[in-house]
Design a protein that fits this description.
- Strands 1-7-6-5-4-2-3 form a seven-stranded mixed beta sheet, with helices on both faces. It has a four-stranded antiparallel beta sheet with strand order 8-9-11-10.
- Helices cover about 45% and strands about 10% of the residues.
- By secondary structure, it is an alpha/beta fold.
- Helix 9 links the parallel strand 2 and strand 3.
- Helix 1 runs parallel beside helix 3 and helix 5 runs parallel beside helix 14.
- It has two domains: about 260 residues, Type I PLP-dependent aspartate aminotransferase-like (Major domain) (Aspartate Aminotransferase, domain 2), CATH 3.40.640; about 120 residues, Alpha-Beta Complex (Aspartate Aminotransferase, domain 1).
- Bound molecules: pyridoxal-5'-phosphate (PLP).
- The site of pyridoxal-5'-phosphate (PLP) has 13 residues, from helix 6.
Length: about 500
C-alpha cells in the first residue's frame, strides 16, 4: 500500500480536476443520472476489492453524476446549504491527509488545538464578539449539536441557580442527574421559552431529558418570530420553574429575527437575570449578520445587536461561513459550566499534561472525544479572505435575496411572505438571505415547489406558512452573483407560471 504513492499522485490529480471544472449548469442531476448512479452502487462488499484506480473511476463516472450541485454552484437554494470557499476546500484536503485527532490539547506534540483555538478567536472577531468574554468555545458537527450544547449548559446553569437559593454547594445536573438535582433545587418544571424555534432546538430538548414538550412558543400572534414579552415574563415567574430563553436569530422559514434591536436584547437579559434563566441564541444563520456594516443593511445590523448579551451562541460553519460539512461552532460566556457538563471523568490517559497555556482540551468541553480537524478549513478561509472578503460574500448573498424579493413584490403571480407593511424599500430592508413566497393561484401554489424542482435548474424547499404551502429560497453560497443568478431564478419562475397557465 505504501508503494502506491505514484498512483495516488496520478489519481489525486484526476480528482483535483473536479475543483477546477466549471460549476454544473443545473442544481439537480437529471433523473436518468440519478437512476444510473443508483444502479451502479455496489450491491455487496467485494471480496478482493476493486483497487484504487477502478474505485476512483467508479466514483467519478458513476457516483458523482448522481450528486446535486450543492456547494459547487450557487443555484442550489434548498434548506440552507452553504458552499465551500476555495481556501476552505483546499484546507479540507489537508485535514484528510493529516487526519489529526482533535480531542486532547497536546501543546508539546502538535499545534492542532492551537489552530482550533485561533480559528475560534478569529471567528469571534469576525462576529464582533470579544474572545475574552467567551472562554467556552468549540467547533461542533453543526448547529444541531451546538444547540444541544447550549441547552445542556443552560440546564446545568438554571438548576444550579435555583438550588443556590436553598442549599450550600453546587447542584450539578451532570453529576447528580436531572431528577435528583431538580429535587434538590425545588424545581418541578424546566421550560425552554422561545419563538419559531428551529426543529433542532426541540430535538435538543428531547435528547437532554427536558422533553420536546418543554419547548414553549411565546411568539406574538401577528409576528410569530417575536417575543410576547408580557407572556414571557409571566411564564418566567411561575413558581417551581427554571427557564432557558432561546432566541431565534434568525428564523429558518421567514429569515426574520426574534429581536429587532439592542434594547430588546437588554430587556431579555434583564428578565433572565431576574429569574435565573439562561439565554441561548440559535444564530445558525443570523449570527453572520453581525459582519455587515453598511446602512443598506441597518435593519439586519440592528436585529443582530445585543446578541453578545446571551449566555450561549450557536453558529454554523457549513452554512454562511461556507466551509465544508460538518462544521458548526458554539460560544458560551461561562468558564465554569463546561467541566460540570462535559468532563470525561476518571480518564487519566486523556489528560493533556503540563501545557502552559489556557486552552481547554476539546473532549472536556463538548460532546465528542475523537474529533475531525474541522477547524482548519475555517482558519484557512478566514485567513484567506479576512473581514472584508466575508462581508463582500455576504453582501452579494443579501443582494441576490433582495433582488428576488423585489421581483416577488412586483409580481402578479407570486406573493412575498410574510406580508410586510410599508413601502417597497422598507419591506426589502427586512430581507436577509431567506425569501419565502407563494403562488397567488391556489392550484399552482400546491405544486409550485415541485415544479421549480422539476426544472432541475434551481432548487428550492417547500414549507408551510399560515396553514398553506409555501416555497422558500435560502441563499447561502459564497458564489452568489446577482447579475448571473437573478435572471436564472426569474427565468425558472416565469417558466413555471407560463407552463401552468398553458395547461390550466
Ligand atoms: C440549519 C439550522 C440549524 C441546524 O443546523 P445543522 O447545521 O443542520 O445541524 C439550527 N438552527 C437554525 C436556525 C438553522 O438554520
Amino acid at each position: 500500500m505504501y508503494a502506491q504513492t505514484d498512483l495516488i499522485a496520478k489519481l489525486s490529480a484526476k480528482i483535483a480536476t473536479i475543483h477546477t471544472s466549471p460549476p454544473p449548469e443545473n442544481a439537480l442531476p437529471s433523473e436518468d443520472a440519478l437512476s444510473n448512479a443508483r444502479s451502479k452502487l455496489q450491491r455487496h462488499l467485494p471480496s478482493s476489492g476493486l483497487g484504487l484506480e477502478e474505485t476512483v473511476r467508479h466514483l467519478r463516472q458513476d457516483i458523482i453524476p448522481g450528486l446535486n450541485a450543492s456547494s459547487r454552484s450557487s443555484n442550489y437554494y434548498g434548506f440552507v446549504t452553504g458552499g465551500s470557499t476555495p481556501a476552505a476546500s483546499l484546507a479540507e484536503n489537508i485535514v484528510t491527509a493529516y487526519d489529526q485527532n482533535c480531542a486532547v490539547h497536546l501543546p508539546n506534540e502538535a499545534v492542532t488545538i492551537n489552530v482550533e483555538d485561533r480559528a475560534l478567536t478569529l471567528l469571534a472577531e469576525l462576529l464582533k464578539l470579544d474572545p475574552t468574554q467567551w472562554p467556552h468555545r468549540i467547533f461542533t458537527t453543526g448547529a444541531t449539536s451546538s444547540n444541544i450544547l447550549g441547552i445542556a449548559c443552560g440546564r446545568e446553569y438554571i438548576i444550579a441557580e435555583a438550588s443556590a437559593l436553598r442549599s450550600e454547594g453546587i447542584t450539578s445536573v451532570g453529576e447528580m442527574g436531572i431528577l435528583e438535582s431538580m429535587r434538590r433545587a425545588g424545581v418541578d418544571r424546566i421550560q425552554v421559552l422561545t419563538t419559531a424555534p428551529h426543529s433542532s432546538l426541540v430535538k435538543a430538548a428531547g435528547i437532554l431529558g427536558l422533553g420536546r414538550a418543554s419547548v414553549v412558543d411565546v411568539g406574538l400572534q401577528d409576528k410569530p418570530h417575536k417575543f410576547d414579552v408580557p407572556k414571557l415574563k409571566k411564564l418566567l415567574e411561575a413558581p417551581g420553574t427554571a427557564s432557558i430563553v432561546a432566541v431565534s436569530a434568525c428564523e429558518v422559514n421567514s429569515g426574520l429575527f426574534a429581536t429587532s434591536n439592542l434594547t430588546e436584547m437588554e430587556e431579555l437579559r434583564k428578565l433572565a437575570d431576574m429569574y435565573g434563566a439562561w439565554i441561548h441564541v440559535d444564530g445558525a444563520m443570523g449570527l453572520m449578520g453581525r459582519i455587515l456594516d453598511s446602512p443598506t443593511y441597518q435593519t439586519i445590523i440592528d436585529s443582530c445587536a445585543g446578541l453578545e448579551l446571551a449566555d450561549s451562541l450557536t453558529g454554523d460553519g457549513h452554512k454562511l461561513l461556507n466551509v465544508p460539512y460538518d462544521c458548526g461552532f458554539f460560544f458560551s460566556r461561562h468558564r465554569e459550566i463546561p467541566a460540570r457538563v462535559f468532563q470525561n471523568p476518571n480518564a487519566a490517559y486523556l489528560s493533556a499534561g503540563p501545557g502552559g497555556d489556557e486552552i481547554m482540551s476539546p473532549l472536556n468541553i463538548g460532546l465528542e472525544n475523537s474529533r475531525r480537524f474541522r477547524a482548519l478549513p475555517v482558519y484557512a478561509s478566514l485567513t484567506a479572505y479576512g473581514k472584508d472578503g466575508y462581508r463582500d460574500m455576504l453582501e452579494r448573498q443579501v443582494e441576490l435575496s433582495r433582488g428576488f424579493a423585489e421581483y416577488l413584490y412586483g409580481s402578479e403571480d407570486f406573493e412575498l411572505l410574510p406580508k410586510f407593511e410599508g413601502k417597497k424599500e422598507e419591506v426589502l430592508a427586512n430581507i436577509f438571505m431567506i425569501v419565502m413566497f407563494r403562488a397567488k393561484d391556489e392550484g399552482l401554489n400546491k405544486e409550485v415547489t415541485n415544479r421549480i424542482k422539476a426544472t432541475r435548474k434551481i432548487y428550492a424547499s417547500g414549507t408551510a406558512f399560515e396553514g398553506k404551502p409555501a416555497c422558500r429560497l435560502a441563499v447561502s453560497n459564497w458564489m452568489a452573483d446577482v447579475q448571473r443568478d437573478l435572471p436564472t431564478i426569474k427565468e425558472v419562475l416565469g417558466r413555471v407560471v407560463a407552463e401552468w397557465k398553458e395547461n390550466n
